[in-house]
Design goal:
Length: about 325
């Protein structure tokens, strides 16, 4: 809406005043925002022709806009040239430094990227993205100690980002510190497990059980002892009526943690649904040893006992429930 109106207004101006540089400049910005980058480059070319050299702020803006368009078009050399021209007019523009640095980084021009990130960080202050991306440039340049320092600082701003630990591990390995590298690899693995479980929970709460199962599966691939992921995957399988898969996951949980009461109860209910009454009774019994006040489960075991023909025991469960 906003950019459509700007384009319409600029077109009206240019019909009446085809030499209006401001209209070309403003229309170029709208083209960039709309993703029409070739048109933006053309308008910037015309705007630069019409904007006197003494209007340095405007020329900086035009070069910056054309740099954005060339960047989006994958014309890295032209983008760098435009950002450099813009910085010649406006050397303290942190955004221009950041954008040029990102192109340098993509081009593996690590020394230039480091210089731009450092200059921009000194101008922009506390924004953590400068240090985060400078760390990647230090890694590319093989400046391992500097990379470690930036990665460590970034961890405070991007808490839970496993890639930071993996990257720092790489730097430690190159410095010969295997113990620190192993510690960081393990931290990265744990973070990825936790992230996969959280993503699975989110998907499960939204009723997206297939996606939840995929996330929980990712978690158990990273950590075969991840009891929570197995349990939650069992619950998702059960919701999809995949009884065999759910039973297998509940059983895996119990093999790791015999006291996991919710897995016991889940398996008991599935066994009952499959008319595996003796197995269900066993699971209900273990559950009730740990949760003797859960009256409703006595009724569930009563039903299993009755189905198994163990009527006297079923009566005792009915009495326990009544008590």
């Amino acid at each position: 809406g906003e950019h459509d109106k700007a384009l319409s207004d600029c077109n009206d101006v240019l019909r009446m005043a085809p030499e209006n540089g401001d209209a070309y400049r403003i229309r170029a910005i709208s083209f960039v925002e709309r993703g029409e980058h070739h048109k933006a480059v053309s308008d910037c070319d015309r705007a630069l022709e019409l904007t006197p050299e003494e209007y340095q702020d405007l020329r900086a803006l035009i070069h910056g806009t054309r740099g954005r368009a060339n960047d989006a078009l994958g014309r890295d050399t032209l983008a760098i040239a435009d950002f450099t021209s813009a910085l010649d007019y406006s050397p303290a523009d942190a955004w221009l430094l950041y954008t040029r640095a990102m192109v340098h980084l993509r081009q593996e021009q690590y020394a230039a990227a480091i210089d731009d990130f450092t200059r921009g960080h000194n101008l922009a202050g506390d924004d953590p993205s400068w240090v985060y991306h400078r760390a990647q440039a230090y890694l590319g340049a093989g400046q391992w100690s500097e990379a470690i320092a930036d990665l460590t600082q970034s961890m405070y701003a991007y808490e839970g980002d496993a890639s930071l630990y993996d990257d720092r591990a790489t730097a430690y390995e190159n410095l010969g510190d295997e113990e620190a590298a192993r510690s960081d690899r393990e931290s990265a693995r744990k973070l990825r497990v936790a992230a996969a479980v959280q993503e699975g929970l989110k998907q499960q709460q939204q009723g997206h059980y297939e996606q939840a199962i995929a996330s929980f599966t990712e978690a158990v691939k990273l950590d075969a002892g991840q009891v929570d992921a197995y349990f939650l995957r069992a619950e998702a399988h059960a919701m999809l009526e995949r009884i065999d898969e759910a039973l297998a996951d509940y059983t895996q949980v119990i093999s790791v943690d015999e006291t996991h009461n919710e897995a016991r109860l889940g398996r008991a209910r599935l066994r009952f649904s499959q008319k595996k009454f003796d197995g269900a009774i066993d699971d209900y019994s273990v559950y009730l040893e740990h949760q003797p006040e859960d009256g409703l489960v006595y009724l569930e075991r009563r039903d299993a006992l009755q189905a198994a023909g163990r009527d006297e025991e079923a009566k005792r469960d009915q009495q326990r429930y009544a008590e």
